[in-house]
Amino acid sequence: MESAELCSSDKTVGTDDDGYSIVLELHRDDPLFDKKKKLLHDKGFGVKKQIPLQSSSSPDLISKTLETMLQIGRIICLDEVELYFGEFDTQSGSYSTRNELETLNLLFSLVESLPASQMHEQLNVWKDLQSAIINKIHEFGNQNKVDAKIDRNYICEKEKFLVQWGERNGARTKLEIAYVEGAGRGAIAVEDLNIGDIALEIPVSIIISEELVYKSDMYIILGKMDGTSSETMLLLWSMKEKHNCESKFKNYFDTLPAEFNTGLSFGVHAIMALEGTLLLEEIMQAKEHLRMQYDELFPALCNDYPDIFPPEFYTWEQFLWACELWYSNSMKVMLADGKLRTCLIPIAGFLNHSLNPHIVRYGKVDSATNTLKFPLSRSCSAGEECCLSYGNYSTSHLITFYGFSPQGENPYGVIPIDIDVGQVDCIEDCSMSNWTTHMVWGTWLSNNHNIFHYGLPSPLLDYLRRVCNPTQQEKTLVPANLEIELEVLEDLESTFRGMLENLGDTLDGENTRWDVKLAVEFKDLQRRIVSSIITSCSAGRNIKLSHDGKRLIKFIICNIGWSCVTGLDFAVYPVQHFDNF
Questions:
Q1: Are residues 429 and 542 in the same domain?
Q2: Omega cis (within 30) before 299
Q3: Fewer Cβ neighbours under 10 Å: the N or C end of the chain?
Q4: In a domain, 50, yes or no
Q5: Same domain, residue pair 311 and 237
Q6: Which residues of the chain have pLDDT under 70?
Q7: What are the backbone angles phi and psi of residue 53, rounded to the nearest 5°?
Q8: What mean pLDDT is reported for the chain?
Q9: Per the domain annotation, does 400 fall within a domain?
Q10: Mind listing the GO molecular function terms for this protein (predicted)?
Q11: Residue 431: inside a domain, yes or no?
């Protein structure tokens, strides 16, 4: 798992003659700067906005101020997938649950950074704005709350020993480890936790990092080997340390499973079930890479240094187990020296991933306390499972390296489109259309299924239109443009029908091994996504034909008369639409 990063904005507090103001600014080093800048300009904003805090404000003014901050913050916090699909839900007023939570927490941190003790006349406004943001976060939490079913029959004895060991070594937690149905072990809040509360605090002294390798006997050997990364050294260290009965981290290793059950451990039947999917290729490439890495190290290290690398500890099976451990449980942590390192965090590994997490900002050691803190970005009630985000990963990545498919609709569960994106002339502003990669997701996630949209991503459609006609400038309902629409939709439908055929028939995933079930579940999801693309393309072609029909009706009305069309259903062909032709 990786630490979550705050979106690109300068956390700046401005001052002027009238007092304090909040500054929202888009970083120029944001890789999506040009596209976000275009969106900001379309909404009437620049890349930097200073929002003054008045000495007194009515509830309406507070609401308007917050709405302005939200509009800017949402765009600043957009990631690549959200920007590519551009799905703004007018009903909820947000791009995605991830984007909304990150935006609200950005605004909360900006308001919190204001020096309240010095604000005097603006203090009430500051409090009102702070309360308004907190209320928004609470509303978000209530809308996205998931009830976890705790299995109290499962006794987490070893996990309790680990927590007690952590507390003896300076850890602090407001969580308990329990067995969650459908998710395995998870972290449950033992009390009501509010925004900003620290759910878990781990001292650096019990974090497993590369410093431990440097102090071990194997570093004398590994340090002299060219091209051996710190991650590889940690991998080899953990393979041996888990057998050490005197290890400082014995309680941690005792809680680790004998098998991690990630995609890297898929058996033959599961691999066969994945035929026709990109997940099959991803797993095979990953395993091939790991096998090559293993063969470069063993049996040479065991033969040359059997005392340091005992052969019984360094089999292929144990190497794969250690790889799964580090893939599924490690975190990127910025330590006090400012360096980002891959670490194992005892206790924190029980925090499960969620598409609607409670914790999104973590991964940097507090230099004042020398601890790693996990603060809440939204409230978590007592008895509720406390979750974090492992990162904005596709479903295939989560299966391969973590061994699960996320609950709910994963907006990052996209299918990349293999298109040779060459230089296509673009007459209009290309800042929103010069994507170098393209992708699709289930069209049920889209809000716009009208003509020129069809529930499909605009960047993909715009690129395909420019391939057909580089001079097309506007999406107008003229015959030439409609012919291009038909050609684009027919090509897409043909491509995805071929993909659907490659996926084969639906398989029965009931009463089978865990890996086959997971493989069948993923393949069914891929089939559902591909089918939705085909359906949307077909519906889009029907929209085009419907518009052709309207043009014919208008011709008849204008040249022959109403009597010839009295039998038509004008709910399907409303007269007000005729003026578009």
A1: yes
A2: yes
A3: C
A4: yes
A5: yes
A6: 1-19, 56, 88-92, 116-121, 420-433, 508-511, 544-581
A7: -95, 120
A8: 87
A9: no
A10: protein-lysine N-methyltransferase activity
A11: yes
Q: Are 391 and 1 in contact (CB under 8 A)?
A: yes
Spatial strand order of the sheet with 19-25 comes to 12-16, 19-25, 48-52
Closest CA to 361 of 47, 76, 98, 17: 98
Query: Is the domain of 31 the same as that of 108?
Result: yes
Tokens of 289: 């890479």
Residue 183, amino acid: A
The number of folded domains in the chain is: 4
Rounded distance between C-alpha atoms, residue 237 and residue 242, angstroms: 9
Name 379's Cβ contacts closer than 8 Å, sequence gap at least 6.
137, 138, 141, 192, 193, 194, 195, 358
pLDDT digits (tens, 9 = 90+) for 363-411: 999 999 999 999 999 999 999 999 999 999 999 999 999 999 998 899 9
Mark whether 169 and 248 lie in a shared domain: no
Same domain for 385 and 321, yes or no, is no
Residues 182 and 39 in one domain: no
Name the DSSP class of 577: G
Q: pLDDT (tens digit, 9 = 90+) per residue, 418-472?
A: 876 555 555 455 555 678 899 999 999 998 999 999 999 999 999 999 999 888 7
In this structure, are 187 and 233 located in the same domain?
no
For residue 275, the enclosing domain spans: 208-344
Render pLDDT for 297-306 as a digit per residue (tens, 0 to 9): 999 999 999 9
Torsion, CA 239, CA 245, CA 250, CA 253, rounded to 10: 40
